[in-house]
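@here heads up, posting the sequence + SMILES for the flavin-adenine dinucleotide run so it's all in one place. Ping me if the SMILES looks off, I pulled it from an old spreadsheet.
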Amino acid sequence: MKKVDLVIVGAGPAGIGAAVEAKLKGKEVVLLEKANETCQTFRVFYKDGKRVDKEYKGHDSNNRGHIPFEDGTKESTLETFEKALKEHNIDIQFSSEVESVKKTNENFIVTTPKQSYECQNIIIAIGRMGKPNKPDYKLPSSLSKLINFNANSVQKGEKLIIIGGGNSAAEYAVDLAGQNEVTLCYRKDKFTRLNDTNLKDIEEAGKSGKVKLKLGIDITEVLDENGKIKINFTDGTSELYDRAIYAIGGSTPVDFLQKCGIQVDDKGVPSFDENRQSNVKGIFVAGDIASKNGSSIVVGLNDGVIINDFLSK
Ligand SMILES: Cc1cc2nc3c(=O)[nH]c(=O)nc-3n(C[C@H](O)[C@H](O)[C@H](O)COP(=O)(O)OP(=O)(O)OC[C@H]3O[C@@H](n4cnc5c(N)ncnc54)[C@H](O)[C@@H]3O)c2cc1C
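bot reply: prediction finished. Complex structure tokens:
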């Protein structure tokens, strides 16, 4: 477990901006990015050569941060943010998707597949473009209401299969086992990405039979059998379920916020105060995640200034 002052989740402009402002205030900070490069919204959604405007859709264009972002192109904007990371010597960790954060006494624990961090404060800057990962095989569209990527639609008493081996999958399985018949299917033969609490809980649930564990077994096919989910497994068996939940990474931003205990309104916008602090004291939101329809690069940079000014008071 590594101890830092501040963990920032998401290395888009808001996350990078917040990291730079924190570093300038003398904080020990780590920036966690799920992809293997920075700024996924720029890279995935901007066309090559796209003009990037500082004044965007009527948002505040007065940049109060220390990253010298000006009008440019996709390429020059990426260069500006990459340069800022290097110049300020930011500790950035790639392939580090955060699934949720946990509060323990005074501090927070943030877990990624590679490392856990203990910190006093967290800034969530994950944007609004995330979506859940889907399996490689085809899922029947006729079952789309019963094949989910979170546990929000589960009804008491349903026979469930949860697919995945990360913290979300383990938490869903343990939480739902009190009211449902639950199978957890994970293609690897042991859990390697769980935090200590989830590992203990799922192992106990597996031993006591509360959760049926199918480890080292993958799914070959999902079929619609008279409105039920028929799953064929690599060990040659097959079984019917009422509902399947895929928890194989890439949750939506709203799921992420809810898992952190942050209240969201019916548009998926988190509640936060004038310092961008959410209802969970110590967790802040910055950039697009703190808006209904997305904001702008300058707004994200200014959020980092507001939060770090508040944290340094
Ligand atoms: C087509 C298009 C054109 C635009 N043009 C402009 C423009 O000209 N000028 C302007 O100011 N704005 C523009 N915008 C808006 C601007 O891109 C966004 O406001 C800005 O990218 C938001 O920054 P962000 O850091 O909040 O989120 P993002 O840029 O979305 O970055 C979030 C980062 O968090 C990472 N992440 C997500 N979940 C996790 C997780 N669980 N763990 C770890 N990392 C995670 C993502 O991979 C991503 O890298 C445009 C947007 C689009 C879609």
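MO: The chain has a mean pLDDT of 95.
MO: One more: The chain has two domains: 2-130+252-311, 141-246.
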